[in-house]
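Quick one:
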Amino acid sequence: MAQTSGAALDALRAEVLEANLALPAHGLVALTWGNVSGIDRERGLVVIKASGVPYASMTLDDMVVVDLDGRVVAGGRPSTDTPTHLALYRAFPDLGGVVHTHSTWATAWAQAEREIPILGTTHADLSPRAVPLARPLGDEEVAGAYEANTGTVVVEAIGAASPAEVPAVLVRSHGPFCWGPSATAAVESAVTLEEVAKMALLTEMLRPDGPPLADAVRRKHYERKHGPHAYYGQSS
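Output:
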């Protein structure tokens, strides 16, 4: 098996390790239920955690390098969700990191087979749209290349929108996939999604007939963080 080298890939492996370790730190995973990946676009290589490795003992040696066809370049057996990550990287050249978790609140919406409606400004800071729910997989899709087909329905759920405006999709009865321009940013999307999912569920419990967030406020909150004239945070 060929060995990879280079400072850029070493830095990516370190970032992906840190991003994976952030999942339990933020309460997004239990046991080994989650994974983060990052991509080196110049080399066409993806770094993802090894399958079934406990977070408490995870090290750089547990970061597996694969190419965009899923062939292992360095390391052991990659996460079983690797084909889903690769489908997203192939579909969207601007993606730099992907996260999958079974986080409680977001997964509750996925298991209820409901998209997450946009009810408040916290959601709008993440996305100007409802968090979509992927279509169900057919029996043949489940029996066949299940993880790759999961990637297909996630890509379909994003549709004509950009992955920047739709930074997360709920896989029906499964859980969320999130992404961003880097592995670190993808984790931030996953953290925000979990809070949004929690707030939305509690809001619907308090007021089941509550209205969606007003369009003007929704667009304002998204644009001030992500638009061409964004003014949130410090200028570089």
